[in-house]
Every structure is written in structure tokens, then in C-alpha cells.
């Protein structure tokens, strides 16, 4: 996967690392462990704020949401994903937002164990039409049509959707 470092201002990356290091230090002290820093990667799209890759000891962050939300994003998402990694090391494969994760979030990270975020998601829709109405398609569906991989049909009138313009 290509890194998105060029889009991340250095001050935000430094804040991500400071937050990660602070919470990792807390976890290591409380659990009497010596877990090293996980790798941090950035991905510029999607509705997922962050993702923990357990076996790779890696955290992937949504660079668009990071840039748009700054410190609020960092303080919520970095501890959330780090908690997933710590739970995996401590307990193995367990329920993603189960009792162990909730405990790590509240007792070690000092955060509310929220499972979802409320950050705004920028979505680029494409306007298509059929004989009876207009349809909004995602960028993914639009690209599938453009690369002749598929076509979409209106459920009401049964005609193939055609691009009107971008929104």
C-alpha cells in the first residue's frame, strides 16, 4: 500500500506519535509489559477512521479525517486502535469491542469505550439517471461503470443508469 505521508502535515503526525507513545507507556506500566510502538500508516479515503492490524502490530489511520478533525480525531482514534492491539497481545483473538477491549479503553487509556466515531465523512457522489428518476452512485460504483466492469439498472423502470454529471 502506498503511504500518504505527503498529505499529512508533520505537526499532525507528531501529535499522533505523541498520543500513541503516551497511551502505550500507560499500558506498559499498568500491564507490566514492554510492547513496542506499532507501525502507523495513513489511508486517504473511506468511512473507517482507523484500523488495527493485529498480527502486523500496525495502526492505519484515515488521513482525510485526521486532517479535517486534528486533535479530536487523534485523542479518540489512536487510543481506540491501540487498545485493539494491546487486547490481542494480552488475550489473543477475542470479540473486537468486548469486555477486554472495554476494560483496556476505560481503565488503561482513560477513555470512554466508544465503538463508533462521529466524524464527518466527505463522500463524492455521481449523479445518474434513468427514465423515471435520478440516482446517486458512489465513486466505487461510478468507477466500475467507467471501466466497463458492470452496469446498474433502475429497480423501478428497469433501464440502465446513465451518467448525468458529477455533484
Output the radius of gyration: 20 Å
Content of β-strand? 15-25%
Strand order of the largest sheet: 1-3-2
Q: Give helix % range.
A: 40-55%
Explain what this protein looks like in three dimensions.
- The chain has 167 residues and is of the alpha+beta class.
- The chain is built from four helices and six strands.
- The protein has helices at 10-31, 63-91, 99-108, 139-146; strands spanning 39-43, 50-53, 58-62, 125-129, 134-138, 162-166.
- The protein has a three-stranded mixed sheet. The chain has a three-stranded antiparallel sheet with strand order 5-4-6.
- Helix 1 packs parallel to helix 2 (63-91) and helix 2 (63-91) crosses helix 3.
- The radius of gyration is 20 Å and the shape is elongated.
- The two termini are 29 Å apart.
- The model has no long low-confidence stretch (mean pLDDT 89).
State the main characteristics.
alpha+beta, 3-stranded antiparallel beta sheet, 4 helices, 167 residues
Give a quick rundown of the structure:
The protein has about 170 residues and is α+β, with helices and mostly antiparallel strands. It has helices spanning about 10-30, 65-90, 100-110, 140-145; strands at about 40-45, 50-55, 60, 125-130, 135-140, 160-165.
Topology readout:
Elements: H1 10-31, E1 39-43, E2 50-53, E3 58-62, H2 63-91, H3 99-108, E4 125-129, E5 134-138, H4 139-146, E6 162-166
Parallel strand pairs: 1-3
Antiparallel strand pairs: 2-3, 4-5, 4-6
Helix pairs in contact: 1-2, 2-3
Amino acid at each position: 500500500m502506498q503511504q500518504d505521508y505527503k498529505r499529512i502535515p508533520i505537526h499532525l503526525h507528531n501529535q499522533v506519535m505523541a498520543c500513541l507513545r503516551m497511551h502505550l507507556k500507560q499500558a506498559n506500566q499498568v500491564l507490566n509489559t514492554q510492547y513496542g510502538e506499532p507501525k502507523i500508516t495513513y489511508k486517504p479515503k473511506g468511512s473507517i477512521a482507523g484500523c488495527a492490524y493485529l498480527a502486523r502490530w500496525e495502526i492505519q489511520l484515515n488521513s482525510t479525517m485526521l486532517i479535517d478533525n486534528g486533535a479530536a480525531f487523534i485523542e479518540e482514534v489512536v487510543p481506540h486502535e491501540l487498545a485493539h492491539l494491546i487486547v490481542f497481545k494480552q488475550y489473543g483473538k477475542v470479540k473486537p469491542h468486548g469486555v477486554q477491549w472495554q476494560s483496556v479503553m476505560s481503565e488503561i487509556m482513560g477513555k470512554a469505550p466508544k465503538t463508533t466515531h462521529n466524524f464527518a465523512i466527505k463522500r463524492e457522489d455521481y449523479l445518474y439517471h434513468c427514465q423515471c428518476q435520478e440516482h446517486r452512485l458512489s465513486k466505487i460504483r461510478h468507477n466500475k461503470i467507467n471501466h466497463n466492469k458492470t452496469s446498474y439498472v433502475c429497480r423501478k423502470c428497469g433501464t440502465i443508469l446513465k451518467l448525468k454529471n458529477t455533484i
